[in-house]
Amino acid sequence: MVLSETDYSEKFLEALHFLQNSYRQFPKFMIEIIAENYGIPPPEVKKLINIFRRNGMLKILKNQGFYYQLNDIS
Question: What's the total number of domains in the chain?
Fold first, then answer.
């Protein structure tokens, strides 16, 4: 069964919430690992990171060594 992008977006957001609740800030490799655990294929992860960044839901903390964090709006 192939999930649509919408289904991956929901699972990706769920994975990001898990990371946010567990670590507050997290590097990209942690996003990739948790996404794999949530059944999101690696090619989709890069797309989803870009989509979530463009939508303002995911931000890069450049002063923290390029860690990521969910914005409060998500």
Answer: 1
Which residue range is the domain that position 28 belongs to? 5-70
Q: Are 67 and 61 in contact (CB under 8 A)?
A: yes
| Residue 49: half-sphere exposure toward Cβ, Cα within 13 Å | 18
First to last CA, the chain: 28
What would the pLDDT profile of 7-66 be if each residue is shown by its tens digit? 899 999 999 999 999 999 999 999 999 999 999 999 999 999 999 999 999 999 987 778
Q: Look up the CATH number of the domain holding residue 14.
A: 1.10.10
Global pTM value: 0.84
